[in-house]
Amino acid sequence: HGQQPSETETSGTTAIAAQDNRSADGIRLAFLRHMRRTIGKPVEFSNTLDQYRAMAHLVRDRVMDDWITTVESYVQHNVRVVCYLSAEFLLGPHLLNAMLNLGITDSAEKACDELHYSLTQLADEEPEPGLGNGGLGRLAACYMDSMTTLEVPAVGYGLRYEFGIFRQEIRDGWQVEHSDKWLEYGNPWEIPASEATQHVSFGGHTETTKDEKTGELIWKWVPAFTVKGVAYDTPIPGYRNKQVNRLRLWKAEAEDSFDLEIFNRGDYMGAVRDKMESETISKVLYPPDETEQGKRLRLMQQYFFTSCSLQDMVRLHKLQKLPIEKFADKWSVQLNDTHPSIGIAELMRILTDEEEIGWDEAWTITQATFGYTNHTLLPEALEKWPLPIFASLLPRHIEIIYEINRRFLKDMQAKFPGDTARWARMSLIGEDGEKQVRMANLAVVGSKMVNGVAKLHSELLKEDTLKDFYEAFPNRFTNVTNGVTPRRWLMLADPPLTALLNEVLGTAWHTDLYALRGLEDYVDDAGFLDKWRKRQEESKGRLGDFIKRSMDVSLNPASMFDVQVKRIHEYKRQHLNALHILGLYCRIKSGELKDLPPRTFLFGGKAAPSYTYAKLMIKLVCTVGELVGKDPQTKDLLRVLFVPDYSVSLGQRIYPAADLSEQISTAGKEASGTGCMKFMMNGAVAIGTLDGANIEIREEVGEENFFLFGLTAPQIAEKQKAGYRPRDFYEKSPLLREVMDGLRDGRFSNGDRDTFAPLVRDLLEVDRYFVMADFDDYARAQSEAGKIFCDSKKWSRMSLLNTARSGKFSSDRSIREYCQNIWKINLDR
Ligand code: 73E
């Protein structure tokens, strides 16, 4: 603190030398300086956006000071570096997070008070960098926070999308997408790194020549065009440790701003066309779509950022005068799903074609460099590239992949003689129908370690999806259960809860979340439980205020807040939740349910723009909301709200206010889930299936503090094999019948029988995700949760134990495991 040179400042009439640039005075003066010099306005003419920007710049200055010292110490100690390659980094707003990690929030608040601003209002001006779709991208952001906090030298590498995830509007119950112009007013959190610019080639053909001396074949790629990669760095500050790591995102630009020769011939449009085509590579974030269209561009994105990143590592490696043969000793590259797995072929190309290392040594280095994290078992999400697209874009890489495959299959033929079916399954090239490059197979073959993201998921990978590979390389497989950063998801999201925890536990839990166990001492303390309940009600009040302001809807803070926020997907089963609410509606209408405690059902999440079914699920939720909200018999008991445009910042408002956390995916389908962990830390009790991280949450919190329902993964597999008939469940359950009949007959939708017909038909005839099979048991678990909620002491006890036992789900724990089992980095240096 305060070692940085002091700033001499003029604020209107007073000139004060700030002794400590982290004090309220220092911050106020720096704010006024940035208002003049960076924003260029007299402070009295500034608007809230200007004020946010001035504040962001002064906070960034303070992060930069720590950055310089961190970089210097990395270079000095020649540390091993983790490179986290990810197509998505869903960071969320920076300002308050950076202040929290630097420890200057109180000073900043004081400075704002003196200037008559509200820090939270000003922070609300920050456009959220939505460079991710959901869990996978958010996980990358949590891991950056934890790596820096644990002082792991790390670089995050990804794409600087000009347009992030679309903004969602709900119009008449339907999702409408709008483009996300997050860079419109500039981004104070990034710094272009001109020295790091790279060039990435595409297309063309390959040629071979003979080396005159050795007679060996030399491969040469003659590309059709190249694209420039410009690096933008975002500093990632650790929690109160003066460490700052780098997130390096690549922007695609044309090699020359336009072709002068064409321009001189008078063809201006032709001259800028190349520029526009190159720049589309980093234009927009891909939503996970099933459509074929756009595949080529997505592959270009993947190769573009992966190649830039590996070239950057080689550049830095040489800058430090390290021998290229030692590449794997210096760099540990983690592949966040298969999106960057083309990196395996790219590193082979760099090592063999450019560095002229022999194949065997290059392969040893490559395998020792990469680790692969798998995030999904859904077959439609396993990346496969049609061979013609792949070969035309990356003609050299397809040759390299063929060679990797030839050698690999030779090994497998020796290991599993005669087992031709197995060889075909394991091949890097799929031959069923159109030929394809199988990226998961490439990722497993080219990595030293492969991990799933929760215990069950890692087991299913070994038993099913990657079974052949597990049998070939059993030691390569491991598990690292996901985690989330308690700094953003507890401390930033819920300051009153943080204050309460600090009061009784001290602050050790900030970086050792297992210390929350100390809360268990209060589990029978009636006074404390009462405090706990009041705090929870206040959280609900704050969310209520926000919803009143933004949606003009009033919520009842005494009602149970029952929340499902996540991407909209059939396997996550938001429709199961909606059907259950319709069940409650029917039972209230018939007079069967009388003393139901009031409930507020909150939904949030985006559907992929081309995913028609998911969009229909949103419409269903909104239709149910309208139905129960208008009916005088139900409107005080049930309230259903779809909160539009779910995001990181909206999540920060929602998690602290939840009583019940909906984790109701079909068992075996959610690889991990991470929202469940954010709810748990904030004291929500889960209702869920034995799926993903739910299993470990229930293990930690105890079965009596988790509302379990539904078929297990083995039961689902069995039903699938035996031939699942959803209609049997419909026929057996009177409540389910009433709900499905009502939906079909238009009873819930003002007589409209058409809108939900496809959904009803699908659920009764196909129901890939076992909604019908799990309906009754879900309703049973829900009613149990409702009963216990009425006993507020019992509920508070469960809630408190959820927070107390959430220690395992800190991303600090996950990163420790990556360091130990995958990256081989010693944290007790
Ligand atoms: O279960 C989540 C998991 O918690 C999983 O569905 C998600 O990753 C989270 C973090 O491990 C995930 N996202 C994707 N695949 N799995 C994905 C696939 C394609 C494009 C974008 C994201």
UniProtKB/TrEMBL annotation:
Residues 1-18 are annotated as: Disordered. InterPro entries: Glycg_phsphrylas, Glyco_trans_35, Pyridoxal_P_attach_site. Its EC number is 2.4.1.1. GO terms for molecular function: 1,4-alpha-oligoglucan phosphorylase activity. Gene3D superfamilies: Glycogen Phosphorylase B (3.40.50.2000). PROSITE patterns: PHOSPHORYLASE. Its cofactor is pyridoxal 5'-phosphate. Transmembrane segments: none annotated. Keywords: Carbohydrate metabolism, Glycosyltransferase, Pyridoxal phosphate, Transferase. It catalyses: [(1->4)-alpha-D-glucosyl](n) + phosphate = [(1->4)-alpha-D-glucosyl](n-1) + alpha-D-glucose 1-phosphate. It comes from the Bacteria. Belongs to the glycogen phosphorylase family. The lineage of its organism: Bacteria, Pseudomonadati, Acidobacteriota, Terriglobia, Terriglobales. Pfam families: Phosphorylase. This is Alpha-1,4 glucan phosphorylase. Residues 1-16 have a biased composition (Polar residues). Allosteric enzyme that catalyzes the rate-limiting step in glycogen catabolism, the phosphorolytic cleavage of glycogen to produce glucose-1-phosphate, and plays a central role in maintaining cellular and organismal glucose homeostasis.
